[in-house]
Amino acid sequence: MKSPPLLLALSVACAAVFTLFVARPIAGDWPVLLKVTSIVLLMLLGFRIHWALGMALAFSAIGDWLLGVRRLGSLAEQSLFLFGLGAFLIAHLFYIGLFQKDRALPEFRRNPGRIAAAVAILLAMGGVLILLFPNLGPLLVPVVVYAGVLCSMGISAQMAGLNNSYAAIGALLFIASDASIAIAKFHGAFPGDRLFIWITYYLAQWLILRGFQTNSNSD
C-alpha cells in the first residue's frame, strides 16, 4: 500500500520543518501545529497496527499541544503543564499495556543488555528526581507519579517479546527526552536542550511505532 509510506514521509517532513523552529524559536505558538501534525500522522499509522498504539500516539499529540502553547482559554502555563503531563501519562499506560501483551520474561532474563537498560532507567530516574526535588514544590506528587509510570513504560519495553530492539531503544530515548524536559523546567536550561528534547522525542515515537510495525509484519 502507498498510504503508510506517504503518511510517514509527511510526518518526517513536518518534524523536519518543526526542527528549524526549535533551533531558531519565533514568536507565537503556531509552530506547535507542525509538531502535533507529525505525531498525528504517526498515530494514523499506529491505528493500522494496533488500536492501543494509535491511542498512545493520540494522547501524545494532545500532550504536545497542551505543553506547546502558552495559554489555552483560561488555562495558564502551570495548568497546561499538568494537563499535558496527564495526557502523556495516559499515553504511557497504553504503551505499557502493549509491551505487557508481548512480554517475554525468560528472554529478558537471558539478555544482559536489556537488564542493564532496565537498571539504568531506575538509576537515571532516581538521580533526576533527587536533583529536582528541592525545586518541585506543589508539583512534587504529579511529577513523581509521572516518573514512576515513565519508568514502568521503559522497563516494560525492555521486557517486551518483540522480534527487534526498535521499541526498547525508543523507550530509552523517550525517557531521555522527558528527563531533559524536567531538568530544563525545574533545574535550569542547558545548551541545546530544546533541540535535544525534540529530536529524542520524535525518534522515540517513531522507533516504538517501527518496533510494533516490524513485529506485525513478521507474524
The radius of gyration computed from the alpha-carbon positions, rounded to a whole number of angstroms, is 17 Å
- How many domains make up the coordinates? 1
Head-to-tail CA distance between termini: 18 Å
Secondary-structure-derived class: mainly alpha
- Count of DSSP strands: 0
What quaternary form is this? Answer: single chain
Regions with little confidence, pLDDT below 50 for 5+ residues: none
Helix content range of the residues, please?
A: over 70%
* Mean pLDDT metric: 92
Strand content: under 5%
Characteristic terms for this protein:
219 residues; mainly alpha; 9 helices; 0% strand
Brief sketch in words of this structure:
The protein is mostly helical and 219 residues long. The chain contains 9 helices and no strands.
Note the topology:
Layout: H1 3-23, H2 32-49, H3 51-68, H4 77-101, H5 105-109, H6 112-136, H7 140-159, H8 166-186, H9 193-218
Helix pairs in contact: 1-2, 1-9, 2-3, 2-9, 3-4, 4-7, 6-7, 6-8, 7-8, 8-9
Task: Describe the 3D structure.
The protein has 9 helices and no strands. The protein has 219 residues and is mainly α. It has one domain. The radius of gyration is 17 Å and the shape is globular. The protein starts with a helix and ends with a helix.
